[in-house]
Amino acid sequence: MIRIQCPFCGERDHSEFTYGGDGSIKYPALNAPIKDWLAAVFHRKNIRGLQLESWHHINGCRMWLLVERDTVTHKIESVRAAHIDFQKILKV
Amino acid sequence: MTRFSAWNVIKNGLNNQKGWDRQWQDCEPKDQYDVVIVGGGIHGLATAYYLTKNHGIKNIAVVEKGWLGGGNAGRNTTIVRSNYFQPGNRQFYEHSLKLWENLSHELNYNVMFSQRGHVSLLHSPSAIDAAARGYNTMRLTGSDAEIWGLKKLKQKIPHLNYNVNARFPIMGAAVQKRAGTARHDAVVWGFARAADQRGVNIIQNCEVVGIKRDKGKIIGLETSRGLISCKKVGFSAAGNTTLLWNMAGLGELPIESHKLQAFVTEPLKPLLDHVVVFGVGGAHFYISQSDKGGMVFGGDLDSYKSYAQRGNLPIVQDVAECATSILPCLGRVRLLRHWSGTCDMSMDGSHFICKTPLKNLYLNAGWNYGGFKAGPSAGWYFADLIANDRPDGVIANHDLKRFERGINIDERGAGPDPKLHG
Lengths: 92, 422
Known about the structure:
The structure holds two protein chains of two kinds. Chain A is α+β, with helices and mostly antiparallel strands.
């Protein structure tokens, strides 16, 4: 079991969360060229090592989090709220 | 090499088993090969075998970083079936099933393919309708499929949980009778032995650590056992495909590596003579009984991306709950082992057997849950692609550019999210 330090709820089991996927993806503007959208939707870095990913605390506070986790050891380096305004309020 | 035959079995029985040779040679890598396949699993070895057999290519090596079949070939639930719906997949998996049906004879090696039937339980009238649509489509491709009503299902598998008050009562089943299971190690060993006999060099403990490029071409592979130069290269490395792709300097792939667990219980007396699949309302479970008696089963992915070949405990619980909901008689059976493989989950749940941006590099990847049953056919079509430098019609849309063309080969209709294509 991975334990995730939710900035709102404290440390919880990963089974309370839903994995969101690659958290480093920046979605392009709606009128961006189709190539940019292709890359954002279909192509992945698939990092072996430390990666930024999103988790949804679906059975807790229902907030989206950004987690830095190693995809080999599963060790978590950092957790922060995904929304920039919450990051400011929580100062994390 | 000594062939396996009734005569040789009797002869060596009288001869204290002294007349058997090594099954395959432990080769030192040569400096140069016509084709090098990276990955010594079922797919890589089958590719090498069909390259020699169907296309007459002689100078081939299969390089494997660990031992043969130590990756996903040895980490699955050994189910073989062809009940696919999408064009391309349908023909591909049916071709594979036909190859499976003759594989033991083809390889002169008993792969213990047992066509015991694949029974997908159905739990609502609409599920029965959907299954009938899928199965009619399969029959158009020359495959076999039928729908069983409750009465027939109860006769065939009497000890499922038929309680009408169950959360999802069983109402029937979609059945493919020609489907079944095989012995995973035997398939790997059989292909290795047959490929070796045809002159393929199988090189274990040989990890690719770098790729030498000359503009748009690969000129050699740097391995832990020295530089190997090659005219053509095929990647067949499942969950580690991205690492090779990065070494070749090719950017991103529509693939994520996730882990999938499988389980086996202590051996029991004969209990279940079909493959049974239970998938409704979030449950996902498939079970069969091995020849040794262990109940072999599996469920969902471990929910998050990972390269670790070890499973997590919430899935153990999830799968155990599924097991006892359809086979309550397993309640007190003890789990013997569970293991996990790194699956190359693709963006639409279907595979890639295709050319790449590099002229002499070919890719076989994106097998999601389905790599074991696909093995012989993947080897067949991948060899054809490498030998002729063009994809066969069956795999024409299984390339990396299909998303660009607006094509998704998505059996589940789950959308571009790798973790959903279980």
